Amino acid sequence: MENYLFNTIRQTRKNFIQLIETSTVEELNEVPAGFNNNMIWNFGHIIVSQQLLCYKLAGLTPSIDPQYILSYQKGTKPEKFITAEEVNNLKELMLNTIDELATDLSNNVFVNYHGFTTSYGVELNSTAEAIQFFPIHDAFHYGCASSIKKALNKK
Asked: Among the residues of the chain, which ranges form H helices?
């Protein structure tokens, strides 16, 4: 089950990377009418959410740059133009953080957890439950970014 879950998460993230790679940096940063964020915010948000829901709630330090957390955590919105360099950094983190999570899970580094109820109303009481939530969360934000891409193409 665990391999299937991680493979599903990786595939959604690979699909998201493809969406990002078929967009210009300007498109990634544009917030179309009717939306409150852009494609790159949704992309960065799923990386940050995974770090916060798995590591921070387990009392561990997230492995990503704290600036990413400030820019992409829940409740934030696009505040600045994201450069091609940052896009490339985020693309690297997209899969690396999942590989790191799988390793840390197998090494039993997650021993404590502060329960949390997501904005979906899903209660998470362990890192394992947070990991089970990611396919839903990641696919939702991939869908949002796909909708933004379609809106930009209609302009």
From this structure: 2-21, 25-29, 39-54, 66-72, 84-106, 127-153
